[in-house]
Amino acid sequence: MLYAVVDIETTGGHASANGITEVAINIHDGNKIVESYTTLINPKQPVPDYITALTGIDDDILMDAPAFDDVALQIYELLSDKVFVAHNVNFDYSFLKHHLAAAGYDLQCKKLCTVRLSRKLIPGKSSYSLGKLCTALQIPIQNRHRAAGDADATSILFNMLLDNDLEGIIPEMLKKTSKEQVLPPHLDKASILRLPNQPGVYYFKDSKGKIVYVGKAKDLKKRVTSHFTGNTPNRQRQDFLRTIHHVDFVICGTELMALILEANEIKRLWPENNRAMKRYEHKYDLYVFEDQNGYLRLAVDKHKKNNNAIQSFNSLLEGYNFLTQLIDKYQLCAKLCYLQKTATKCYAHENGQCFGACSGIETVAVYNKKLNSALSDVQNQQPSFALVDEGRKEEEFSCLVVENGKFYGMGYFTDKNYLADGLAPIKNDLSIYQSNSYILNLILNYAEQHPQKLYKL
Question: How far apart are the C-alpha atoms of 221 and 373, rounded to whole Å?
Answer without folding.
Answer: 52
